[in-house]
Amino acid sequence: MMSKGPQKKVRSRVRAAIFSVPAMLGPLSKMRVFFHKLRGVNIGNDVEIGYHVIIDNVYPERVTIEDGATIAARTTILAHDESALYTGIGEEIVRNTRICEGAFVGVHSVILAGVTVGRKAIVGAGSVVIKDVPDNARVAGVPAKQIS
């Protein structure tokens, strides 16, 4: 017989999967936010989420998006990294990822596990953010670097 811990984990993974499509494709940002919340993502007030945004499919509860943040279309926000596990050279990494109040993440960006994007920070389109972004900073590029 399974203990409650594994059952809860399975239920949360199933919930995250079931609501992932409407969370990405809902016709209104408020609907996309609603479905991401149902998936377990911690989302504040007045958050905008664009089309085709992927918020960690395995650990959505490890992602926090604070009040007034904007996540533009086709962005991916991760809370885990399985690359070392899949290649046999290490373990899965699972870390909290945070988009702080009023931050803007540009279209088609990738925010890696464990990164915090600071308050009112701007992430330029197509950036890959591998380390924390300070409050009010502007970053862009692959990997993202501060530009002002």
How many strand elements?
16
Largest sheet features: 6 strands, mixed
| Beta-strand content | 15-25%
| Computed structural class | alpha/beta
Number of domains: 1
Helix percentage: 25-40%
Fourth-tier CATH superfamily name? Hexapeptide repeat proteins
Separation of termini?
A: 56 Å
Low-confidence stretches: none
Under CATH, the topology is which? Answer: UDP N-Acetylglucosamine Acyltransferase, domain 1
- Note the total helix count: 4
Written account of the structure:
The protein has four helices and 16 strands. It has 148 residues and is α/β, with parallel strands linked by helices. The chain has a single domain, classed as Hexapeptide repeat proteins (UDP N-Acetylglucosamine Acyltransferase, domain 1, 3 Solenoid). Strands 2-5-10-13-15-16 form a six-stranded mixed β-sheet. The protein has a four-stranded parallel β-sheet with strand order 1-4-9-12, covered by helices on one side. Strand 15 and strand 16 (145-146) form a beta hairpin. The protein is globular, with a radius of gyration of 15 Å. The N and C termini lie far apart (56 Å). The mean pLDDT is 92.
Quick overview of this protein structure:
The protein has 148 residues and is an alpha/beta fold.
Provide keyphrases for this structure.
24% strand, alpha/beta, UDP N-Acetylglucosamine Acyltransferase, domain 1, 25% helix, 148 residues, four-stranded parallel sheet, six-stranded mixed sheet, 16 strands
